[in-house]
Amino acid sequence: MDLALAPETLARWQFGITTVYHFLFVPLTISLAALTAGLQTAWVRTDKEKYLRATKFWGKLFLINIAMGVVTGIVQEFQFGMNWSDYSRFVGDVFGAPLAFEALIAFFFESTFIGLWIFGWDKLPKRIHLACIWMVSIGTILSAYFILAANSWMQHPVGYAIDKVSGRAELTDFWAVLSQNTTVTQVFHTMTAAFLTGGAFMVGIAAFHLARRKHVQVMKTSLRLGLVTVVVAGLLTAVSGDLLGKVMFKQQPMKMAAAEALWDGEGPAPFSLFAYGDVDEGHNKVAIEVPGLLSFLANGDLTSHVPGINDTNKAAQEKYGPGDYRPNIPVAYWSFRWMIGFGMASFGLGLLGLWLTRRKFLLPAPLRVGEDEVPHLVLFRKPLSHKLTRLYWLTALWTLGFPLIASSWGWIFTETGRQPWAVYGVLRTSDAVSPGTSQVEVLISMTAFTLLYAVLAVVEVRLLVKYVKAGPPELTEADLNPPTRIGGHDRDADRPMAFSY
Length: 501
What we know:
two-stranded antiparallel ribbon
């Protein structure tokens, strides 16, 4: 490794490790907040106990997840001052604006109303308490929007000007940062992927309990909700991904050429199914392709010209000066495919599950009144369905993390495919790193953060496993009869607020 580049390389590794780890919690936070709110809405409207038990069960998993997300997210901002001070100095006026809005508006929504929701079960009327979890859900979406707006500005900088005296980027049009097509399409794609993640998470855990014939009523409801979410979100993820791809083809042609290992511009351009090539020589040795498909994905027709890696690199050299403007081609190529592959595998599993439930394979037989667990009965209506459902549930359990893997590779593709730019076309990554940071300092901080996150991962998994195995809680009298006015039940008016789980 070139020692001159070591601090930059290590700083990138550290930011990559902490970012990917943090983003494991983001899609689950967004989706579980909304899905929990939907289940609680169903309870408020119908008064059915299964919806209340489902709300408390998924709500508890949501709380574990958001707590870890907040802890790991704080570390992200520290790194801008630790390893990327030149970046912060150059773009702080622009990049800091959406982050400030995220903290002042979105995080306020989340932190305030999540506290009211946690402690307000036996203190707030049903509809006011329901409004709290919806406000939390809105807060998570707003938080994601502002952060993605900041990231989209790095992908496609707009609404700024370079001050001639200080040489820094200064914000001139905040609305342009928030509303540019890069932001809108990236938010759309991230939201749909988040709900694909939450739906698969719900399907996998519901499958775990149904395979054990536990908590049947609650898990039947959760299974249906999860499957519908996976199918709808999977379709929308494909649509939003296509829209985002078209935007990237226009704004970052190098990234998309690298994603397809398209070395020389072609028209019509093929979509690569598999490629193996020589990066130094700039060509593929083996290529399996679908003719014309890349032209369609880029421009909506089968014959248009798509610029290649060599063409784009030459154009960048003419515009920005000598240098290699290619990202890591193998990483861009394979991360793009793993993102699509793991995401679509989850969608396919959801589509199969939805068909099986419609065919009555996955749905247990009706239970007797008051019966929740059937340890010895044959639960299935079709003669061959028992083995089929066991196989499906096992597959669903082991693949519940597929959308998380897809999201992680999606972010790796998004960020590494932009290289060598920290801000595309404006600030190179080599110019963004802290100038006074040594290789040893970055290595120490990277090692410390990685070990800390490993410990947090163990804590997160153990907590989730513990409460997943425990299943939905039994309901108390206070759960079934919440107060009709603010202040709670008269007999409990002076009792301190407590964590109501």
